[in-house]
Amino acid sequence: xxxxxxxxxxxxxxxxxxxxxxxxxxxxxxxxxxxxxxxxxxxxxxxxxxxxxxxxxxxxxxxxxxxx
Length: 68
Known about the structure:
Blueprint: E1 5-6, H1 8-13, H2 18-27, H3 32-38, E2 40-41, H4 42-46, H5 51-65
């Protein structure tokens, strides 16, 4: 399976606050603007082993499974 790309729509689909997500990204040294523009691979976000981030990853993986 390919590495799903997590986008802001997946954060929203997981019922997560984008303001909180922005702080989460910044505190981990991730580029929020890059995320907004292109998304980030699930493996990058998942490396922090965060259960809340896992919710957005799950949404991205569901989305990717429905594409083809």
